[in-house]
Amino acid sequence: MRAGQVGVVCETCLDPRDAAMLRAMGLRPRAQVRVCRLGQPCIIEVVSGGRGCCRIGLAWDLASRVMIGVAVTGG
Amino acid sequence: MMTTGTRNEEPHNAQHDTGGSECAPLRAALIGNPNTGKTTLFNRLSGLRHKTGNFPGTTQEARVGYAQRPGGEVEIIDLPGIYSLELDSGESEVCRRVLAGTLAAPGAPVRSPEVVCVVVDATNLSRNLLLVGEVLRRRLPTVVVLNMIDLARSRGVHIDTGVLSQELGCAVITTSARRGEGVEAIAPALGEASIPNQTPPGTQDGLEAWADRVSEAACAGGTSRTDDTLTDRIDHVVTHPLWGVLVFAAVMTALFWSIFSVAQIPMALIEAVFDGNPDLVAAWQPEWLAAMVGQGLSGLVRHVLPEGFIADLMAGGVVSGIGATVVFLPQICILFFLISLLEDTGYLARAAFVMDRVLRPLGLPGHSFMPLLSSHACALPGIIACRAIPDRRERLATILVAPFMTCSARLPVYVMMAGILFAGRPLMAALAFVGCYALGIAAGCVSALIARRTILRGPSRAMALELPTYKLPSLRTAAVMTIDRGAMFMKKAGTIILAICIVLWWLGAFPRVEPPAAVQEARAVAERVRAGEESAADALRLFVPEFAGAPAQAEEAADAIEARADALEATDAKARSYIGRMGRAVQPIFAPLGFDWQLSVGVLTSFAAREVFVSTMAVIVTGSDDAEDQGVLDAIAGATRDDGVTPVFTPAVSWAVLIFYVLAMQCLPTLAVTARESGHVKWALLQLVWMSVLAYGAAALTFALMS
Ligand SMILES: Nc1nc2c(ncn2[C@@H]2O[C@H](COP(=O)(O)OP(=O)(O)O)[C@@H](O)[C@H]2O)c(=O)[nH]1
Ligand SMILES: [Mg+2]
Question: Which residue of chain A is at minimal alpha-carbon distance from B354?
Answer without folding.
Answer: A41
